Give the backbone structure.
Amino acid sequence: MQFPILSVLIFTPLAAALILLLLPEEKKSWIKGVALAAGIIVLALSIWLYANYDIAAGGYQFQERVDWLPALGISYYVGVDGISLPMVLLSGLVIISGVLVSWGVHDRPREFFSFLMFLGASVLGVFSSLDLFMLFFFFELAVFPKYLMIVIWGSPKTREYGGMKLTLYLFIGSMLALVGALAIYFGSGLRTFDMLALENAGFSLAFQRVWFPFVFLGFAILGGIFPFHSWAPDGHVAAPTAISMLLAGVEMKVGAFAALRVGIMLLPEGARQWAWLILALATVNVVYGAFIALIQTDFKYVIGFSSVSHMGLVLIGFATLSREGLIGAGMQMFSHGVMTALFFSVVGMVYDRAHTRDIPKLGGLVRKMPWAAIGFIVGGLVSMGMPGFSGFVAEFPVFMGAWRAAPVVAVIAVLGILITAGYIFLTIRRVFFGELPEGLAGVQDVTTRDKIVIGGLAAVMIGLGVFPSLMVPMVESGVKTILALLGGA
Amino acid sequence: MAAGEFTTSMVLAVLPEIGLVALAAVLLVVDLIWRGNTRRYFGWLTTAGLAVIMLLAVLFARPAVEGALVWGGMLRFDSAGFVFRMIFLAAAALTALYTAVTDSVRLHGEFYALLLVSTLGMSLMASASDLIMLFLAIETTSIPLYVLAGFILRDQKSVEAGIKYLLFGAMASAILLYGFSLIYGLTGTTQLYNLGAAFQAGAVPAVLIAAVIGLVLVGFGFKVSAVPFHFWAPDVYQGAPTPVAGFLSTASKAAGFAALMRVMAVAFPEQSALWSTMIAVLATLSMLVGNYLALAQKSLKRLLAYSSIAHAGYILIGVAAGSEFGWLSSTYYLMAYLVTNLAAFGLVAWVERNTGSDDLSAFAGLSRRAPALGLVMIVAMLSLGGIPPFAGFFGKLLVFASAIEKGMVWLVLVGIFNAIIGLYYYLMVLKTIYVNEPSDTAKLPKAAVAWRVALTICVVGILVLGFWFGPFYSYAQSAAASIWIY
Amino acid sequence: MEFIENHLLTLILFTPTAAALILLFVPGKNVRVFRWGALAASLIPFALTLFAWARFNPDPNPAAPFQFVEQAAWYAAINASYHLGIDGISLPMVLLTTLLTPLALLASFSIKERVKPYMILFLLLETGMLGVFMALDLMLFFVFWEVGLVPMYFLIAQWGGANRNYAALKFVLYTMGGSLGLLLAIQLMGVAVGSFDLVTLTEKWPTIQSLAVPIGVPLETVKTIAFWAFVIAFAIKVPVWPFHTWLPDAHTEAPTAGSMILAGVLLKLGAYGFLRLVLPLFPAEAQRYAWVLAALAVAAIIFGALGAYAQSDFKRLVAYSSINHMGFVVLGVAAAAYTWNATAAGTILDKNLALSGAVLQMFNHGLSAAGMFFLVGVIYERAHTRDLNEMGGLYAILPVYGTVLIFTAMSSLGLPGLNGFVSEFLVVRGVWPIFTLAAALSMIGLFFTGAYILKALKLVLHGPLNTRWEGHLTDINAREMIVMAPLMVLMLLIGVWPAWILDIINRAVAFLF
């Protein structure tokens, strides 16, 4: 038997979470040490997995399977393919970044890092699941850390509202998806939650048409699909930095990923039937999200709405059901995850020092914290799809896919790019350039840990932008599986 | 099986019941003997006795795969009876442990004796296969509970709870009895397992059968606190000693469900479409009203009372599915709800004891005053909300699945809508515990051993039922199967 | 050596990037390190370009017009590759870029603030511009097309004049907005043809029969819209009237070296786009709408000149002159487009003359505009004003500066014997038989050109000396002369012996499309 590396990957943060809860509250350095160690292990394992995945062979690798509840066909069944492995790597990157930027948490750090690790385990579990039940199990495992972290450590003004809104929206989505998933389970007649088996269940067209919206929209709510997106900015803004990073960076991908895995891959004909609606909604996401971001005056809200806009591109990519679109969506999920984590980390650093996120009260910070400025600029360039950065190599194929599926979507969505450029340049200028307000004269530069986070995330995005072949072939191999399902149905 | 024949297996079939009677007797005797400090150990004694009974039951009183009617057809010795009996015994044991630290009752041996008698009644309810036996069992369950609810004579609220419970309970019993009498009048038999055929043979008008089913549902609706027969619940839960409220909301509810499921499946198999719809309506009402009213509660006990009504609604979804899988789901849900709600009530009892209030504000800042209890509250509330990896998640998943299997998507959508409302107020409780500033920042004292043991068992139960489904699923399955296959 | 030869373009392209990265990690605040480091680094591509020029086969095979070709897998999933190559049109542009960059860097030695990021951005800018001239893959082209914007934005926004934020944002949004259509069209073509390779596209796109796209619009319409998307993107960059409004603002606010590069190279990117992409990919559409282009070009020539004449800000005047001069490039392109499938030998000659003139005009304008902006910068650094009315009679106190200014202005004006004359003459000569009226009108435009240049010279150098400057202004210094010298040499050289560069251009345009 091979080494159960995926299980180790999933259970490392889980174990760390439990160990943390057992540590005495006063031992803050132990607490941070455990969290950091878990983060490093997760990152190392995810890199190892990424490097050792056999792209030529494709398919689901590193599989492990243990019966969980055979009576219902539930098993603990994990495996990763070209779509999920980049997501695993993304989670690894964001988790450790989250730990590093949260080093200064002083209110109940034990609980903080423990919940953070629960969240990490949840996302890793979802990305690795090949069993529908297990996917839900891990999906909902995230509910309580999300809610509690926002209301406990979030920004005082909006945390209760934002946290509750986020949690309930996502719970609604997951419940809808659950209904759909149960329908799939019973409709297949296979009495199994094994997704690889369900993929070949041969659902009737009518069945797929009825149940696809449940599953896809249910999960896509977590992906921020219009008009169910409003939890995202409110929740992200209310959350503490590390959680904003994880929520926008990884959790939104969890939603999109699950929508793809359960919605499109299990009900491909349903996807074909409903693609027009997803395309329409996602296009609104792109343009409307960007436009709203443009008129925000809260630094963090700008980024919150930008996520809405960018996730629209992911969903467009999915809904094109074309090779290019899916590759682009896969790339965009990773690219946006890294980018938005970087954004939120920078926002957090600025807020920690300036104690305000009101853009008119900020300015000239490049002189005080050049690294934060560079990080934000790099993120901004990724965000506007600037060539040479990962955003471009992700968005370009999405648009190609849109041309194949619905040219009008490409033409409208491209406006989002221009608006994005507008708010990014405006924000960069207002926050980092111009006059330094008097109140901010004493602002300190970011710490070395912060620099590691900024530098690391920025390097990933530039590296991917210059050498897309670092990831595209892997995503492509995953897309092949999806296309086979789409074509075969 | 011919009446009058007496065999060892018949004794073994009621071994737990015999044990309960004996234990109750022991307690009454000890109550007379023990003086002073030793009286503190009633709770431990009860729990130890119950543990022994459970052990004996597992060792000697396991039913055969096919159940059998015993004691002249009064009882059915089958898995359903066995599994539910275990649920009641466990609930009673945990309640006894909690009450061991409840000042108002812990020194009263008769309290524990009543608890045991009530458990005895539940145990018989789960196995009764004759209408007369069933009614007797229900009364054996209820009458001690009326006393338990009103046990704290110095407390107006407690007395009020006892009286209220008695009045509502008596009324429900009367309606149920009326239903039973109609059944007897229509078919000429009180044997549950002959009723199905008797209804067929007697060509009873459908309207009458519907009326009978309605009357029976009213009676059981009261026991499981389903809307619109729930009015007693909030006041009784609030007034009764907190552990008793926990016992009422778990064991008593489970007993009601056990009897309800058996009666419906065995006596009215031909009318399943009818009662399924009626139960679905009850489920919908219970979920909506329970959750809606829970939203507005300031007292955590009342909140839990309303949530308990809502949970009756979720469990009714499984019953409404009217299938073996549905029964299984409801049974699993009841197990999950048992550990979850007992944990919640246990916590409330402890905080109430130390702060003198069960108001939500008394829980503010609990995570700072007692971090471990804060974490336990997370476990309990999320399990109630149906979030993994806690027991409630799998329970909810199963009842929803059973309804979807039967194509009752609308009912599941109602359930989902309610699950969301439910999650909202459970999260608000957690928010209070973790975010709100306490009025008193002193750490809470360390809890007594008995209480900690009980709470630990509950938490472990929540977690185990939350991800190690296998064994419990097969218990629930065997219970459901034994009701359906006869 | 073989390595250098095989990867010559890559080396030219990425030396500045590598240097920028090295500078990024050089600690310390010693500005001289950054200044001289950047300058030295920028000389390497220049030297390599000279080497390329020496190795360039001036008489290439029409079937494979590109030289120094490099191709490597880049974005295989959508058939975009790292494909570089240059021909006789791109080579002068590469030379222009690699020449102007060190000069601009030298001119930037007067920058005092935040020298390190300035130099890094400048080097990155060079890579962006060079990439456009070298790319033989449409997606790669777009990559470099956009990448250059970012450093330019920051150069203007950070080191520019008082109104720099507005100007920088206007610049970047205008250009990016223009590129959106280009982006969409590129994607559409990539989807339809299944490749982004320019050679493949040139072969297949103009004759494509059906698009693999559910667009519901006739093929002809789609192609026309795509054509206009390309045209508008490039027209904004050139800029062609009426898409020019970003340019005076950007120039006025940009730092001197930024203006030099902006006028010297960035505007050429648009014109190069017309030549490299619009003509070969959309020959039929270009022919159909050549008259529109010609009309716009004439408008640019005349209105640009009039606009320049109306300015009292020296830098704005020079900025408008760019619109005026680039009009000739577009006019040449329009005339060539109109005669796409002409067979008559005379017409083909006209077409080639117009095109060669256009390319040479690009190069020449690069020299003269860079020189003019630099000279404006020289006076601004001393006088801290660019208001022409506040100057006057400066020749008396700045004789060397005055001479240099007159020389450069004459090149811009098109004085025979200097470079501007050669290219403008070629364009007008080529266009005359094709668009006679346009050629005639552009001649009137040339008249206005003379007017505004002489006006500027008069206001700056002649007339009564504004006594305010007496004793406050120093003449042009050695560093500044070093910047100007190569430009002036080239102006003169092309003016008297244009063959060395025209030959290369001529042969390339002959089989451009």
Notes: The beta strands of chain A are 61-69, 74-80.
